[in-house]
Amino acid sequence: MTKEQAKYLASGGLKGNKEKMKEQAARTRQKERQREWEREKERVEAERDAQEMELSFRQRMRHFTWTWFTMTMATGGMANVIYTVPYRFHGIYALGCMFFLLNIVLFLFNVGMISTRFYLYPATFKGSFLHPTESLFIPACIISLGTIFINISQYGVGKAGPWLKDAMVYCYWVYCALAVIASCGIFLIMWSTQTHTISRMTPIWIFPAYPLLIIGPFAGVLSAKTTSTTALSIIVSGYTLQGIGFMVSLMIYSAFLYRLMTQKLPAESLRPGMFISVGPSGFTIAGLVTMGAQLPRIVAETGGRFMSASDASPAPSTLTFVISDADAHMTTGLFAAEVSRIMANWAGLWLWGLALWFFIVSVGAHWTPLTRWKMDFGMTWFSFVFPNTALTTATFAVARSLNNNRPIQIVGCVLSVALVVVWMFVAGCMVKAVVGKQILWPQKQEDREEGGIRDLEQTR
Fold first, then answer.
1. How far apart are CA 200 and CA 189, in angstroms?
2. Which Pfam families does this entry report, sorted A to Z (predicted)?
3. Residue 118 and residue 434: Cα distance in Å, rounded?
4. Using an 8 Å Cβ cutoff, are 64 and 442 in contact?
5. pLDDT tens digit string along 91-148?
6. CATH homologous superfamily of 45-310+319-459
7. Distance in angstroms (rounded) separating the CA atoms of residues 84 and 72
8. So where are the chain's domains?
């Protein structure tokens, strides 16, 4: 056999192998499409059967999930936004109080309903912690409690006597402990019992870190109404825990961006969760700027003992030739407080751009489903409100740090009005969904069997 013949046979063999590989790949894709079609058909039939069922109130209670606490998160966030609006008019305080009191009522309603669910169906309690989707929303209960504490500090402290201020200081430390336990606990449960894939990743994975993210705003509000070393301890702890929450969220951000670069946008039903990516930056801005603004006053009240030498006298080459030894620590502490305030303002302005970027991306991702109006309602629709309340309060905080910058304040006011409208719209859709069996119904919410996030190997 000549060399040319051998080369010809070899090339023919390679072509044959390539054709076989193409045919095999085509058959594999066809089988995958067939399996996807069969799964979609089963899902549609299950939904149709569920719609034809008649369930009692007791049976519907089985599907009252942790996601209902997103409603109270959003309502408490609205009270927070209204409190921070710089342009005050007659009735705006009453409007904020209305959202605040409504939030307490809704929180008690949610606690009663989910307790009834666990009482009637005890197995659902453990199941909610092990469910790959519902477990992500367990911290919503803690976050809702935190928003109530923030609202009490805003609307109550200073108007009901000193006892309420002291009570809120204790509540602050209790909430810090609950936030750390909830955040670490849910992440550990996720990593120990569940398998997730990057293709189904959404910013909802950040949700277990959210309890930590509102500690900074809570500390900023409460420190403004307390004095002495108590306020300084609150600010230092607020900075620390806020940093933990933001850094954990930032690391999960990278996974979300990788998912967007490799898997396109999430499914339309999951896209409301994209707004959760706005929250970490927004809450961190509000916390940093608010706490930083209080530092100079608090340090002055504590005698300037802040980031200065503990008991040693200042070095003669630095301060003693200008001021007396008695005032050296005060000057050093006040200088450190002013530097901290300026750094907090710059960091807030920097993160404000990040929050705006995620907000624009999240809005753009909803353009197609909104034009076709094919989004099924879910309690995650309150993600249209709560994370954006963080952006709004952050906008007002940035405006204050820039000497009450008027254009930025106007942007915040526009966002505030839009949020009131969106909250009313989502609340109306929620009522309609309950009546129309879109929620509180089998296979409709985050307790559905597939769970929304599962290992592909388990679903095939």
1. 18
2. SLAC1
3. 20
4. no
5. 899 999 999 999 999 999 999 999 999 999 998 898 888 888 888 899 999 999 999 9
6. Voltage-dependent anion channel (1.50.10.150)
7. 19
8. 45-310+319-459
